[in-house]
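Lay summary. Proteins are chains of building blocks that fold into shapes, and those shapes determine what they do. In this project we predict the shape from the chain. Here is one chain we studied, written as its sequence of building blocks.
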Amino acid sequence: MQEILFEYEMHPTTWVYISSLLIIGIYFKFHRLFSVRNLDLLGLLTFSPGLLLIAHGQEQWGYNWLFVVSGLFLVRLLIDPLMVRRPLLEPNLSASGLTFTGVALLVFLTANVLTVQISESDLEGARRWEQILARKAAPEEQALAHHGPGYPLFYAFADLSRRAIAPGDGSQPEGGLVLQRATTRATAVLGHLAVVLGIVLIGYRHFDNVQTGVAMASLYLLLPYTTQMTGQVDHVIPAALLVWAVASYRRPVVSGVLVGMAAGVIYYPIFLLPLWCSYYWRRGLVRFVAAVVVVLLFLTASLAFTSESFAAFVDNVQLTFGWTQLSLSSADGFWEFHGQAYRIPVMAAFAGLSASLALWPAQKNLGTLMGLSAAVMLATQFWHAQQGGVYMGWYLPLLVLTIFRPNLEDRVAATAVSDSWLIPFKRNRIARLRRRVLRRAAAQARRRH
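And here is the predicted shape, written in a compact code that computers can read:
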């Protein structure tokens, strides 16, 4: 970037100021000053001081700040199913202006990914995948020090791209480190692109408003967190999987595969299963559970084929499925400055919250599925042992979708989910036209209110 735009540098603090002003100017509803939308936008901006404190070395204050703001948003997400009135509050910028802004932000985000200094934790994924393919065991403490539990499945693309360029004899090329960085950055770029396209698709297909989809995607790109953590592949790839799982909710098999992959990548989406199973209870439960189980069995089988011994296989399984999270000796971040024994009641409360979502609310629709999924992924930050609170990407796209969503009470599994394994639910042309007319009438009613 320096070779094209001379002396170009966007400091995180500067971007916080600029992006905050842009977000307020584009999305803030000045004629409805005390609306929930405005409070949500101000709440999103309050994450920025915590991230800046951590970036400038004041980690204890930064993590405390993030935990307080995350707690407020957790309460907000848990009461979201009670907010029945969802008026359509369009952005202050036109659809064409939002599209141009979103594309420009995506270009600069890509440039930022290509020029940002890749951290050792990002490169560790590609190196760990090389060790897995070579049937070499890695110290458990080294993996926990950066990422926590999970399986490095999302580094497969990076490693395959690197091997396509590497010599045929399998030796490490002289520019191996450069290639590792390039493929890691490519994975991050594809992850952000998948998140943006998934958000736009949800706005178009499920919110019946493409302008809302573009507005949500632009807000995600504008947020200071996205720019500050732009190259962190372990932040963005799980977010992309969860966004596309929501986008494919009509097809339980596809959603089950994506949720299972996310659970394999970072382990924590396993706690989404009570919520998602409850949603598919009336239709699609068997297909969803079968897809999740197949993916998890595939991951376990791949660990068996790539472990050098049975003991290494057991260690890898424990690491993948979160058994190591019960340890109180490897925490950093928030729990580095506080008594780690207090994580135990927090973990118990989280388990109770995750299980209770199978029963409440009794009638679940697409809106509750999005909002409560964001709540579960946000709640994981309170007991995540490695930099808990910083991994906002796991829930931030779902949080943005919840903030902008309309009333989705009609998107229940019994009527919206496909009744076949792979073919989408078919409707005749008259039914589709009738549904389109009803959607337009509902959108006009929301505009009037």
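What the prediction tells us: The CA atoms of residues 245 and 255 lie 4 Å apart.
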